[in-house]
Amino acid sequence: xxxxxxxxxxxxxxxxxxxxxxxxxxxxxxxxxxxxxxxxxxxxxxxxxxxxxxxxxxxxxxxxxxxxxxxxxxxxxxxxxxxxxxxxxxxxxxxxxxxxxxxxxxxxxxxxxxxxxxxxxxxxxxxxxxxxxxxxxxxxxxxxxxxxxxxxxxxxxxxxxxxxxxxxxxxxxxxxxxxxxxxxxxxxxxxxxxxxxxxxxxxxxxxxxxxxxxxxxxxxxxxxxxxxxxxxxxxxxxxxxxxxxxxxxxxxxxxxxxxxxxxxxxxxxxxxxxxxxxxxxxxxxxxxxxxxxxxxxxxxxxxxxxxxxxxxxxxxxxxxxxxxxxxxxxxxxxxxxxxxxxxxxxxxxxxxxxxxxxxxxxxxxxxxxxxxxxxxxxxxxxxxxxxxxxxxxxxxxxxxxxxxxxxxxxxxxxxxxxxxxxxxxxxxxxxxxx
Length: 434
Description:
Elements: H1 2-11, H2 13-31, H3 34-37, E1 57-63, H4 70-78, E2 86-90, H5 97-103, E3 107-110, H6 116-128, H7 130-133, E4 136-141, E5 145-146, H8 150-154, E6 163-172, H9 180-204, E7 219-223, H10 224-227, H11 241-250, E8 255-266, H12 272-292, H13 298-333, H14 343-353, H15 356-378, H16 382-386, H17 391-410
Parallel strand pairs: 1-2, 1-4, 2-3, 6-8
Antiparallel strand pairs: 4-7, 5-8, 6-7
Helix pairs in contact: 1-15, 2-9, 12-17, 13-14, 13-17
């Protein structure tokens, strides 16, 4: 019985519930012919003249010391969007970020001082007058490269008048010449992207539902009439995208839409230290937003509560798995340990309810099965190999989630930049890198 309970904690009610809803959405999309035509639902009552077009979208990229990646990102963007629509705000950059952005022929502004990403976005929106000149604003990270058909899938979602934000579908940029640890770290992050987007966000954004708790700030689009009512730079928060999403709900501005083919490719950390630092910022940002956010409504509130509950329970599971395995090993392989006063009692008690078989069948096997699903979806055999080494990454995620929970009450963040170490991207380099 304990094996099934462990497996349930690994798969989670959240994934099961929203995965089922996502399955219904897939059937609905297929019946309506959306999948075969490769375009989302369109409100037939909306005149073609009122449908969102690329010319109506401003792209806003906030950057801080991004000389290694910004030229390639802007080069790809220039193939999809008129240069006049592209705006870059450099926040305290001390490298060639501004020079490279100017060379790309886009509009560039620098903040008077280092104010952090949220502050830079707020400054640039006002400086360029984006809310008055455009119908929508796309927030884009400097390392993000858009898929060539991103707007083909994203913009028709705005044909539903209720949609005020479209969340981009995150994919990691696979790059050659990574060492083993780099491949493990990057593949683990892509595994998270696939599972959370296809098993959670896809179902949470089906038609009238708007239950996703994050519109990621790396490549997402907001209607300007909703963006006017969102506080982007809320003091004390380490990142802005959770807060922006929560405000969409708390102020009842409209719903979030998502299409899995509106892809954007981001450069995820390839070093363990950078991964931990970035994950810590994201987790702290979530807990801070939960703490400071105002009332939440309906499916959003229910989905958020379930997400947070399972985040805590699954994190506790993966944090204790190592000490549990150690106690089981002592009980089974160290003669005489059961005779020790305290340690023996602990080992015997754990062994009476748990075994290596339980851990293997209840935790490791189900978790690896999820990795196999990701390998099939991504059509990358490397997941089957590096997936055998994902357990330390899962334990890391769990420890970070639990560590940052009390920090949300103890820390007051400045929001200033803490960027991972970048890997240089040639301007000619495309997004789909093997």
